[in-house]
Amino acid sequence: QVQLVESGGGLVQAGGSLRLSCAASARTFSSSVMGWFRQAPGKEREFVAAISQSGLSINRADSVKGRFTINRDNAKNTVYLQMNSLKPEDTAVYYCAARSGLRLGTLAEEYAYWGQGTQVTVSS
Q1: Contact assessment for residue 43 and residue 90, using Cβ atoms and an 8 Å cutoff
Q2: What confidence tier does 107 reach under pLDDT thresholds 50, 70, 90?
Q3: Tens digit of pLDDT for each residue in 10-69?
């Protein structure tokens, strides 16, 4: 029932910024914990950030704290990932995910619904 579509990826220079968006089709979006993951070729899917249903609680990977911010607009059924001070190691396909539980989980297995991904490439 939950369909997710990411957008906003692109090519940026190191130190630049991007804002990713994830639009959900389901009207139950506000009841879902939302997460962002990323995956580079040959690597495991890596947790980036998650946000509670209300938007009042977040969980972020240590590697992005101080640089990335996750937020959501439940009226627009959209979750965002604001990425600042981008580094070449941030290069990956970024995926939006949703789960029905309350945990701001860090494992891909905890999320039942996934978008198609959007490519982020950071050049040096």
Answers
A1: no
A2: very high
A3: 999 999 999 999 999 877 788 899 999 999 999 999 999 999 999 999 999 999 999 999
Return d(Cα 22, Cα 5) in angstroms, integer: 5
Q: Which residue has the tokens 């604001």?
A: 82
Give the whole-angstrom CA distance, residue 87 versus residue 91. 8
Question: What would the 3-class secondary structure string for the chain be?
Answer: CCCEEEECCEEEECCCCEEEEEEECCCCHHHCEEEEEEECCCCCCEEEEEECCCCCCEEECCCCCCCEEEEEEHHHCEEEEEECCCCHHHCEEEEEEEECCCCCCCCHHHCCEECCCEEEEEEC
